[in-house]
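[Q] Does anyone have a clean structure-token version of this?
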Amino acid sequence: MRVLAAMSGGVDSAVAAARAVEAGHDVVGVHLALSAKPGTLRTGSRGCCTIEDSHDARRAADILGIPFYVWDFAERFTEEVIETFVGEYAAGRTPNPCVTCNEKIKFEALLDKAMALGFDAVATGHYARLSVVDGVPELRRAVDADKDQSYVLASLTPEQLRHSMFPVGDSRKPDIRAEAVRRGLAVAHKPDSHDICFIPDGDTRKFLEKRLGERPGDLVDAETGAVLGRHTGVHGFTVGQRKGLGIDRSVLDGKPRYVLALEPVSGTVTVGSADALTVREIHADRPVWPGRPLEGPTECVVQVRAHGGVAEAVAEVDGDQVRIQLREALAGVAPGQVVVLYRPDAGGDVVLGSAKIGVTGG
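[A] Here you go.
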């Protein structure tokens, strides 16, 4: 097969490309330039898509003996990922930009271009596994549970999965680094990226305030209705947040407060006790089914965050809505997050589908 290997400049994508070559595929490496103003150096493990990253990817491609190109997707990344991220926070929702990036950039823009150029598949360094059952692709959790990225890939369509390869999904991270050493790849010990790639300093609130400005409002106690303080914008908060609320301790009863709800029109941030955070019902929309759509009430395991927020549940589809009844309560479930459904009879590692969380209930 002709395979386009997406090479970020990290160890995972370098080994993924190497394995595709070793498997006998005709491989071409490509690095996605996602920033209009890339820095020359990353800050430790923060940030990505820098000039340094593109150079690391090129050196890895040279060692593997494959052609290498840089494709400029900066404008589309800004429109599809960054502007969506800012808009969601402005609307009082909590987005996951990695889900959006995978959906709109790596497995839509990149894959579409690859198909147009005659490639059969795109290989990435994501930690996930793929299998085909009766002609239907199944997306599964990675062998390395700590690195599993099936959650951020769960919005991919069956057609996209048919043209995707995840060569490192059946390995553990230490083994990937050891393999990179054996192959002579200089990125073998390069730190993993974390946090949001386009916010390299990790200060999301500052990033949003720079783009949205100040939108003052009240911090209101859910039980008493008392105003506990003021804030500069709902975009500085997310459901479940405890720290950095800016509440004057003198007006509290000694109990911690958590963000329960955000109302962007009035600017109200409602806070309350930890008990008020728990939900047992989730209504989500815009479902995507990597395999077969659900039929009738379906037992499943749901996950509401990239790392954590897992519970057994029953899900039922009604048109473009998914109603989920949790068998055990979850805390800090925020509108705008993605809920991913896994099949419980397969050890909870086969993705059934995903949807965007809209409304939650106790």
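[Q] Thanks! Anything notable?
[A] The CA atoms of residues 117 and 287 lie 30 Å apart.
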